[in-house]
Structure formats: C-alpha cells, structure tokens
Specification:
Layout (H helix, E strand, L loop, with lengths): L5 E6 L5 H14 L3 E8 L8 H27 L7 E6 L2 H11 L5 E5 L9 H7 L10 E4 L5 H7 L1
Parallel strand pairs: 1-2, 1-4, 2-3, 4-5
Length: about 160
C-alpha cells in the first residue's frame, strides 16, 4: 500500500493561513491523504510567578484548541477526514523542526506567503534560509495573490 500523503499546515492568525489550508485540504482530498494542523505558542517566563505562568499557559492552550477547532471545520469542508491536530509550546521554528523530526509520516509542509512587504514571512524566511537543511520534506509555498479558484487548480 502507498504511504498516505500528510500535508502539514502551521496555524497562526494570518489571513494567508487559509490559503495554505485550502491547498493542503484540496491536495489531501484528491490524493486520499490527510491534513495535519500544528499550533504553536510561545513559552511565557514568569520565573518569580509560577502560578501566573501556569495560568497563562492554560489560557494559551485553550486558545490553541479553539483555533484548531475553527481550522478543523475549514478543512472538513474539503476532505472527509478529520485532520491530525497538534499543539506545541516553545519557539515556533524550533517546534516545527522538532515536530517534523519526530513525525516522519509528514510528507509535505505547506506555507502561504504574505502579500505584505518581504520580511513579514518569518517561517518562509527561516525554512528557505538558515533552517532549510533541518527539514526533510518538500516545502510548498502558496503565493499571496492567488484566488481560491487558482489555488484549487493547483491542487
């Protein structure tokens, strides 16, 4: 049996994340694959206030779960399979590197470029720059000016 194609999309609050989700969802649907959603949040350091740190982490995790649910519903419009869902705490780039290293079933990493000025895509900058040798799956970057129909045609 062929290996299932799994398209990783890292979630954030950007508008363009929907382009990455649309592309990944369409591709996974066509190829009987699956979408994996990864939400990361920064570690908050309140060394003198452990209780405050714990509350902040609980709130960050609740926000992550809420966002994942919202994006899961978006993915389900295109595919009949629930996406795989993951939440990680820490530096976003390091989380992605560690996630890909630990989860060899991921077959494609999908990012969407911002239409804003260059430099506003920290993940694209990281994974096409200094960190490119740390990922071992193809990276797909969705250009910012594609319509939904154009994204669908690419899929």
């Amino acid at each position: 049996m062929d290996k299932e194609l799994v398209f990783l999309v890292v979630l954030d609050n950007s508008d363009e994340v929907l382009n990455a989700l649309r592309y990944a969802s369409q591709r996974s649907s066509i190829n009987n694959g699956r979408v994996a959603l990864l939400y990361t949040f920064e570690t908050l350091e309140f060394s003198h206030w452990k209780a405050v740190e714990d509350i902040a982490e609980v709130e960050s995790r609740k926000e992550a779960e809420s966002k994942i649910k919202e994006y899961e519903n978006f993915v389900m419009k295109f595919t009949q399979k629930n996406p795989k869902k993951y939440i990680m705490k820490g530096d976003r780039v390091e989380c992605i590197i560690n996630f890909l290293e630990a989860n060899k079933f991921i077959t494609n990493f999908v990012l969407a470029a911002s239409s804003k000025d260059s430099g506003s895509d920290p993940l694209i900058n990281a994974f096409t720059g200094k960190q490119r040798s740390k990922i071992s799956v193809p990276l797909t970057i969705i250009p910012p000016n594609l319509s939904e129909e154009e994204i669908d045609k690419l899929s």
